């Protein structure tokens, strides 16, 4: 088969569309013939040599895909060859075939095209596990989403609104904020021109955000705590603003608040399967019912993965960038 390889870490040009051995499904795995994959910022880090795949997993980038089951490994039940699926991966989505633990498969939701379904697994699992399973966002609470126009952000807006929460977002342009508003965002903050701490204070009559979904890490740590409500929860899922910051523990104590930090890729298979099962139970009916949808900025051929990485690095996109196969 062909796959995107990374012979040497570097810029987008480091991605090479090459012939590689076919994967073989092991115990509890299925082989998926890939129709599309999606680009995540973790893929950019892997390309640069900063985020190696977990031991024993595919060396190729790609944390989600959609396609058709080509083969069942030993011990797999509940799936059949030819089933159309999308999947959460530890790697290997930038390829024509990938072996996936069966517990990380999801059926393609009703009303969603197979290719578009590649935009769903990573964002739905990330948002549901962090905002709902860990931070326990409740109806009537306020969620602040940093990077509201990203793949994660566009899904977080829709899921939070579906449970009756108020949603505030930060984004860097009027176009992105307008799109967030169309998805249901209530408070629109241009981080280039406005102070999100002050805007959240005004929007909540001084109460603050109950849950903050943060992709920035160190750069926003202190301000996130200031923007947080009493009993608030910060869920850190990205480090685009650095890895080391100063935390005012007295402020955190005073608000009886909590900070969590998670990633999906390195979790044990059983934990991923539990998250996928929760997403299938709670999120898939919302998608099939037309209340939540994947947001896709553009589709590029898998062989042009370098161009897709440049799109993410320039941050001009809204939603997900897909890599497709004929």
How would you describe this structure to a colleague?
The protein is α/β, with parallel strands linked by helices. Helices cover 29% and strands 26% of the residues. It has ten helices and 15 strands. Strands 3, 4, 5, 6, 7, 14 and 15 form a seven-stranded mixed sheet that branches. A six-stranded parallel sheet has the order 10-9-8-11-12-13, with helices on both faces. Helix 2 crosses helix 3, helix 2 crosses helix 8 and helix 5 runs parallel beside helix 6. The longest helix has 14 residues. The chain is globular. The two termini are 14 Å apart. The mean pLDDT is 97.
Q: Give the overall shape.
A: globular
By secondary-structure content and strand pairing, the structural class works out as: alpha/beta
- The count of DSSP E runs of length 2 or more, i.e. the number of strands, is 15
Taken as a percent bin, the fraction of beta residues is 25-35%
What is the string of helix and strand elements?
EEEHEEEEHEHEHEHEHEHEHHEHE
| Termini Cα gap | 14 Å
Quaternary structure annotation: single chain
Mean pLDDT across residues: 97
Low-confidence stretches: none
The biggest beta sheet is recorded as:
7 strands, mixed
**Fraction of helical residues:** 25-40%
The radius of gyration computed from the alpha-carbon positions, rounded to a whole number of angstroms, is 19 Å
SS element count, helices: 10
Q: How is the secondary structure organized here?
A:
Layout: E1 2-5, E2 16-19, E3 29-38, H1 41-47, E4 64-72, E5 84-88, E6 97-101, E7 105-107, H2 121-134, E8 142-146, H3 151-162, E9 166-171, H4 174-183, E10 187-190, H5 196-203, E11 209-214, H6 221-227, E12 228-236, H7 249-254, E13 258-261, H8 269-282, H9 284-288, E14 296-301, H10 305-314, E15 320-324
Parallel strand pairs: 8-9, 8-11, 9-10, 11-12, 12-13, 14-15
Antiparallel strand pairs: 1-2, 3-4, 3-6, 3-15, 4-5, 5-7
Helix pairs in contact: 2-3, 2-8, 5-6
């Amino acid at each position: 088969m062909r796959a995107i390889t990374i012979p040497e870490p570097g810029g987008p040009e480091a991605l090479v569309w090459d012939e590689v051995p076919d994967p073989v499904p092991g115990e509890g795995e299925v082989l998926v013939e890939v129709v599309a994959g999606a680009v995540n910022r973790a893929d950019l880090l892997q390309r640069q040599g900063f985020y190696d795949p977990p031991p024993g997993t595919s060396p190729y980038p790609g944390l989600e895909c959609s396609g058709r089951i080509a083969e069942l490994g030993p011990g797999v039940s509940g799936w059949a060859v030819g089933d159309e699926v999308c999947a959460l991966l530890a790697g290997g989505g930038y390829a024509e075939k990938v072996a996936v633990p069966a517990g990380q498969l999801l059926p393609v939701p009703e009303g969603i095209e197979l290719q578009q379904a590649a935009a769903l697994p990573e964002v739905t699992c990330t948002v549901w596990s962090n905002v709902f399973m860990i931070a326990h966002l409740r109806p009537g609470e306020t969620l602040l989403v940093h990077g509201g126009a990203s793949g994660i952000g566009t899904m977080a807006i829709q899921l939070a609104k579906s449970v009756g929460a108020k949603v505030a977002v930060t984004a860097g342009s009027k176009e992105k904020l307008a799109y967030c508003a169309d998805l249901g965002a209530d408070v629109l903050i241009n981080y280039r021109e406005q102070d999100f701490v002050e805007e959240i204070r005004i929007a909540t009559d001084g109460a603050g955000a109950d849950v903050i979904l943060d992709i920035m890490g160190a750069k926003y740590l202190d301000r996130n705590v200031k923007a947080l409500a009493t009993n608030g929860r910060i869920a850190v899922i990205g480090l685009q603003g650095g890895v080391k910051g100063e935390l005012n523990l007295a402020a955190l104590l005073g608000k009886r608040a909590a900070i969590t930090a998670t990633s999906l890729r390195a979790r044990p298979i059983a934990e991923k399967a539990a998250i996928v099962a929760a997403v299938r139970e709670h999120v898939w009916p919302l998608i099939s019912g037309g209340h939540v949808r994947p947001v896709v900025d553009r589709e590029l051929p898998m062989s042009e993965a370098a161009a897709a990485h440049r799109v993410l690095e320039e941050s001009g996109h809204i939603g997900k960038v897909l890599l497709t196969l004929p």
